[in-house]
């Protein structure tokens, strides 16, 4: 939901940044680079999530994080691999189906990963760690923690 909202608000943000003189370099360089960076960061996190989700019955601590991320990425790219295999064999009907499925999978994964990246502020905080407008206060009264 958040990722789709980011995609919807991307064009108005771009237009507003181009209108201002100071925002032109940010709109032309910063916004696309931030979007690509958020996509890659989210795709890596989503690939790790898929690998952990599908391999939950196996010992995950023996494999490294890079191996699990690569496994999840290959799982997510299965429709694309199918597309190229059916294109190689020249089965056009199945290749069109795999093209549509792979485009849908990519859009869903990119939108979810973009939303996760925005919610975690590019991975600097856990989601839900700090909400806007909340303050955590620790008060000690006569040696007791409250």
Structure notes:
With 146 residues, the chain is mainly α. The protein is built from 5 helices and 2 strands. Strands 1-2 form a two-stranded antiparallel ribbon. Strand 1 and strand 2 form a beta hairpin. Helix 1 crosses helix 5, helix 2 packs across helix 5 and helix 4 packs antiparallel against helix 5. It is flat and about 70 Å long.
The N- to C-terminal Cα distance equals 37 Å
Strand portion, in percent?
Answer: under 5%
User: How many domains make up the coordinates?
Assistant: 1
Strand pairing plus helix content: what structural class?
mainly alpha
Helix content: 55-70%
- Uncertain spans, ≥5 residues at pLDDT below 50? none
* Rg on CA atoms, Å: 21 Å
Question: What is the element layout, followed by pairings?
Answer:
Elements: H1 2-19, H2 23-54, H3 65-76, H4 78-89, H5 92-119, E1 140-141, E2 144-145
Antiparallel strand pairs: 1-2
Features:
single chain, mainly alpha, two-stranded antiparallel ribbon, 5 helices, 2 strands
